[in-house]
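From the methods appendix. Each design record in this collection lists the tokenized structure first, followed by the designed amino acid sequence. Records were kept in a plain field format so they could be parsed without special tools. The example shown here is representative of the layout used throughout.

RECORD:
FOLD TOKENS (137 positions):
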């Protein structure tokens, strides 16, 4: 069964998560510089079979757009053109960063590790987005 990949887009860094081959569990994959995203995905899709790309869709608490919303929509369009054989879906990402931080605390991450946002928080946020997609599905 092909995997599902999730993207938590950021202005500088982007978190990625992927399902296991049975599409039951979401696992943090990588945090990369945002400008490298398309190259990373092209390489990843050559190695792994993927059926769906899940994008975290940012909105404010009242449902209105954030400054990242148009960037995510532009990325969705770009992904659909670059990978027309893959399904691309948007998933509400409100609270995922807070949930990721709480998850890291619960799992016993040291304060120093949690501060290293470049590696941990973004990919854990992507995993939370992906897990919520799996639970809805």
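DESIGN:
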């Amino acid at each position: 069964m092909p995997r599902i990949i999730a993207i938590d887009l950021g202005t500088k860094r982007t978190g990625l998560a992927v399902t296991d081959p049975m599409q039951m569990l979401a696992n943090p994959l990588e945090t990369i510089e945002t400008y490298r995203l398309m190259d990373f995905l092209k390489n990843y899709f050559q190695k792994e079979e993927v059926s769906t790309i899940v994008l975290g869709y940012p909105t404010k608490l009242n449902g209105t757009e954030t400054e990242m919303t148009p960037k995510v929509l532009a990325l969705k369009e770009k992904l659909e053109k670059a990978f027309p054989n893959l399904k691309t879906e948007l998933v509400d990402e409100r609270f995922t960063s807070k949930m990721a931080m709480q998850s890291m605390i619960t799992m016993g991450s040291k304060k120093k590790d949690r501060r290293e946002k470049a590696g941990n928080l973004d990919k854990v946020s992507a995993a939370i987005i992906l897990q919520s997609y799996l639970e809805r599905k």
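APPENDIX NOTE: The chain has a mean pLDDT of 86.
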